[in-house]
Amino acid sequence: MKREIKRHSKDFGSKEKVLNYACQTYQLSRPNKVGAVMALIRECQPKSLEEWERWYFEKAKTEGKAPLKITEETIKELGERLYTKITEIVIPEWQEAFKNLTLQDCVDYIYNLTIHRTYDGFIREKLVTTEGLGKRFPGIRFEESDPQLDHAGDIDYIGWVGSKAFGIQIKPVTSKANFGNYSASERMKASFESFTDKYGGKVFIIYSLDGEVGNKEVFVEIEKEIARLNKSTAR
User: Fold this and answer.
1) Rg over CA atoms, the chain
2) Which range of residues forms the domain containing residue 185?
3) Residue 7 CA, distance from chain mean position
4) Which of 101, 129, 154 is the last residue before a domain boundary?
5) How confident is the model over 76-112, as pLDDT tens digits?
């Protein structure tokens, strides 16, 4: 018999989409705003919602160079900021888009998303892997991630170091206008941890700038990881 799981999350109905869109767009639920919530709850191992709530406000801090303790006032301020973004930016932008939207826009969008963007992404990944990573690390065999694997949506390529491997996620530079502002989501972090458990290596995010590696400082970290994996494989 299937176990019935009680859900504690509030249902926001039709508001959910706009709340989620604005929250993600303005990065109001990132670890640098609300802390590493999945890591915190795993550390807590709560038996009740109340236990988790107490633990969170006792332990939670923002991630970054100068971590700040998170309080109920912090959460309230983030909610107020979300409301301001929605009412002053999102709604006016959407109203303008709705007013000018045409059937042809919708047809063109689906075609562009399916054909043009997919092709651009494919070429971008190939250039980053063959020209950027392949030439920098000639001894490493890079292969596309198996789409059937659980982590496939977050790992684009696997770099084999003997019997172990590290992962690569490739993002267009537009997804991170400022390299210092991006942080992986909690779900993505869990996926990266799962990859490491299976293959032994870390996952690195690489930003493509016209097919070239935009964050070249990542090469140093990859070199260190290759050395570590080679050492562990040799044991």
Assistant:
1) 21
2) 117-234
3) 25
4) 101
5) 999 999 999 999 999 999 999 999 999 999 999 999 9
Asked whether the beta carbons of 140 and 159 are under 8 A apart, the reply is yes
Under the banding of pLDDT at 50, 70 and 90, the label for residue 33 is very high
Q: For residue 66, what are its two tokens? A: 């100068």
**226, 228, 235, 215: which is closest to 141 by C-alpha?**
226
Q: CA–CA separation, 174 vs 209, rounded Å?
A: 9
Q: Which two tokens stand for residue 163?
A: 């019997």
Last residue of a domain, one of 48, 69, 101: 101
Query: 45 and 96 share a domain?
Result: yes
Number of domains in the chain: 2
- Both 37 and 97 in a single domain? yes
Angle at 185 between CA 79 and CA 58, to 5 degrees: 60
